[in-house]
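>> received
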Amino acid sequence: MAVPPVPLAWKNLAHDKVRFALFASGIGFAVVLMGVQLGIMNAMLDANTVLIERFKGELVLVNPSRASLMFREGVSRRRIEEAKSVAGVVHAAPVYLEYQSANLRHTASDPGERTHTRRIRVIGVNPDDDVLDLPGVTAEQWKQLNTPGTALYDRKSRAHPDQTNHPGQSVFGKLEPDVQTELAGRTITLIGGFELGFDFSNDGSVVVSSDTFSDWVRKPYYPINPMSEADLVVVKLEPGADPEAVKRALQEKFGGGDVLVLTRDEMIAREKQFWWTNTPIGFAFGAGVVLGFIVGMVICYQILASDVADHLPEYATLKAIGYTNGYLSRVVIEESLILAAVGFILGMAVTFGAYLMLTDITGLPMRLTPGRFGLILGLTVVMCVASGLLAVGKVKKVDPADVF
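>> returned
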């Protein structure tokens, strides 16, 4: 049987343009719901790994017992020297982190207003190791960081909740070069800014030299050999070296199981896995994505079922002149794919705008990566096709004798 000259699926949907726009908007709403929930979920996970992304090295050494960056277990400094002796390794640089005991005093110029402190993440590095990629920090500022009691500050620290009365200020007060405040009870001078952002475990970060980190942060709690362990070790490789081969060589070198060797991507995935499984992020926002999927299925099914009901005479006529249930079923599936395509385009346009707005409001890194774009597209197609398969039953039950 010849196919009708005008594609029936498009003709059925497009005969009433206002109605079709409403149909597509309904699917677009479901796309926005899924996209925004997925975006917030990934933004929260991404926020906890921005620091790892900024490491200037291909491999990371971490204590196997350290489930997340925010915990304390470290890597012995002798392992750093051992790593440097492995073929393909250019340098192994320690990174020190403090999440729990370091507080930054509010930077208000009036001492009377500088009454409260707030916990902050402190990152300690040797400025000469060139271990962190912090755009905006100049070579001169890295050199200044060698001066004890100086720090680089995070321009994307959590914003003050009252921006009307405290415009542009963070929860730590005004952060800018030459501001003096107190870190862990000792005077610190801010010398330059970078952008990392806050996450679940901290409202912002400061970067200090290893010496400042030792004297200001660790010695009060660990007076004997405070820097015996590094929290992480970033390993730089020779140009052209195979990261997997060097990784295996390092694992063989260490042998004892007290050091885990990971690529930077593996370290990022490990950190995300911790937050996914140990916090409500996965459940709360994963449930939101599922809810959006279900809402979209219901909307799409109602659209297709209504369209089938409106065109029963046409379907009955086609059956009477010899078109099979298989052909008519394909018409309904084609309608579902048309709705998926138009609804996805509309929904993603709104979703992209929502990402930009939420990034500006919250400071969270809302990223629409190709993988996430593809996931939302796949969910949209599956959602609409599944609804089409449910609506196909109505077409198969059409009997020309009953209609006419």
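>> The chain has two domains: 8-47+280-403, 54-263.
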